[in-house]
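Internal ticket - ligand job 378, coenzyme a persulfide:
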Amino acid sequence: MILDEKHKEFRKMVKEFADKEIAPRAKELDMNSEFPWNLVKRMAELKLLALYVPKEYGGAGLDVLSYAIAVEEIGRVCGSTGIFLAAHSSLGVYPVYHSGTEEQKQKYLIPMARGEKLGSFGLTEPNAGSDAAATQTTAKLVNDKYIVNGTKRFITSGSIADIIVFTATKDPSLGYKGISAFIVEKGTPGFSPGKDEDKLGLRGSITSELIFEDCKIPKENLLGKEGEGFKVFMGTLDGGRISIGALALGIAQGALDASVKFVNENKKSGRPMKKMQSIQSRIAEMATEVEAARLLIYQAAMLKDNDLPFIKESAMAKYYASTIGTKACDMALTIHGMLGLTNEYSVERFLRDEKLMEIGEGTSEIQKIVIARQILGK
Ligand code: COS
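stdout (structure tokens):
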């Protein structure tokens, strides 16, 4: 993939950071289910936390393509650090940047973009996952305050975030038309984190329940117009899919790199592994699919950067990258044989981390619905 000098330089900078500072910690973060606080601090110093947000709002003033490259490079060595970056930037920062008032941007966007506060996004509920319009959390306006009740589930960075964008309905029977988006700050009375999940992969990231019990949200924390929350988060997810695709791509690249190293260094029955056709075939397949995923992701990013329609392309990018990513990680494990099952090598971690990419931020089935509707109409 041909990139201009600016993006090549940017990739070099992130790659160096990922290799020198993140890679050495990836295994322990996974094994100890440890959140990488010091790496978040470093990402803030390097201005990686809001790459496409203008400098006046605390961002790096770059573009979505740079953001995709950053998530890819970080995901290549550590899925957990990558998912934090993707969730903070796409799900915490983006909706406030896109739909916030000037006051909301000053109060919430700037500290999130600078990394002084961490962002998160509360959409999924125990009974509203893929069918996001089935939101049960309610927000009733009483004397200038919204009284919120309900539970969110599987929220990335939920229990550690300072600023959470979330959705609630004024009446569940209204379907998507009743849903609005809001901002809640950590520590608001009536708002508390529930349990953190113990997950298969991305174990260094946090996935939490969020509980609202008669939580009073000031009226000025409504994000976008009342009743337009569904559109706020659908637009948020459209962009988020580019970063999840980029993360899936990065993990797949990590699995490919590990496999290339392994076959270059090892023999089987006295023969160099790299001379074996069955191995060559797997490496060729992985490399081709990884490159195709990269093209789809960069295309979606460039369309968004140019204010062109990108809904279909971002869903394709996420669907394709996560599908071939899981396949690539599985092949990498096969190439490594029994050693691949041990945590001496990173491929078992890559496979566990990659599986989430097919499920989080819209399952592959949802991506196919989005793609088909863009082609066939609803
Ligand atoms: N951007 C802005 N608005 C959108 C939109 C988009 N990408 N997609 C749909 N809308 C609008 C529609 O135009 C419609 O509004 P109007 O009636 O005013 O035209 C409204 O939203 C409802 O759309 P639709 O009827 O298509 O909604 P559905 O309930 O059929 O849901 C899917 C569509 C399945 C695609 C949606 O529920 C979805 O994406 N679910 C997955 C959620 C998800 O990814 N969850 C994981 C989150 S992890 S953070």
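Auto-summary: The longest helix spans residues 229-265. The beta strands are 119-122, 138-142, 145-156, 163-169, 179-185, 191-196, 207-218, 222-223, 267-268, 271-272.
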